[in-house]
């Protein structure tokens, strides 16, 4: 191989590495930005028991807002197939937890005092047969990594206690998990880095 070809391969490899690093840093920066300046929301989790030994200790989280009844949803999805964004308007309750009040396929333009919206995704095609149909929603906050050896304890706590997730939500409705609480006591706090 000639000197110029080797040199070009080295340059291409360096450019590829820089691009990959840039993409990773952009993701980290977005998460840090949400955690620093997002609005705080607390959601109660529901028990679920998955296992994946290859990915380290983590807990799969499910929420009441992960299954929306059709009567709460207004508007039409943008796409007939693939993923659609859905915007779920949450309101804080007297117990400090937040619950879904309504959902729509367009970004909410008017929120009442004390409301915030969370952006989720739904897979199309889906069919809402009647007002009692349920639409599954994914928010990107369904997995939380915990220190090694702690995953099973959190899963057990979900069955026996109240496990809540504290979120930071930015102005676009994108959420990041800030902390995990068991029976009101904060047991895991997400570092910015």
What would you say this structure looks like, in words?
Helix content is 23%, strand content 37%. It has helices spanning 3-37, 151-160, and strands at residues 39-46, 58-60, 62-63, 67-69, 73-74, 82-92, 98-104, 115-124, 134-136, 143-145, 163-169, 175-182, 185-189. A hairpin with a 5-residue loop joins strand 11 and strand 12 (175-182). The longest helix has 35 residues, at 3-37. The radius of gyration is 20 Å and the shape is globular. The model has no long low-confidence stretch (mean pLDDT 84).
Mean pLDDT over the full residue set? 84
Low-confidence stretches: none
Strand portion: 35-45%
Major β-sheet, in short? 5 strands, antiparallel
Estimated structural class = alpha+beta
Q: Could you give the count of β-strands?
A: 13
User: What oligomeric state best describes the polypeptide chains here?
Assistant: single chain
User: Helicity range of the residues?
Assistant: 10-25%
- Tally of separate helices: 2
The radius of gyration computed from the alpha-carbon positions, rounded to a whole number of angstroms, is: 20 Å
Give the helices and strands as they follow along the chain: HEEEEEEEEEEHEEE
N-to-C CA distance = 43 Å
The global form is: globular
**In order across it, which strands form the biggest sheet?**
3-1-11-12-13
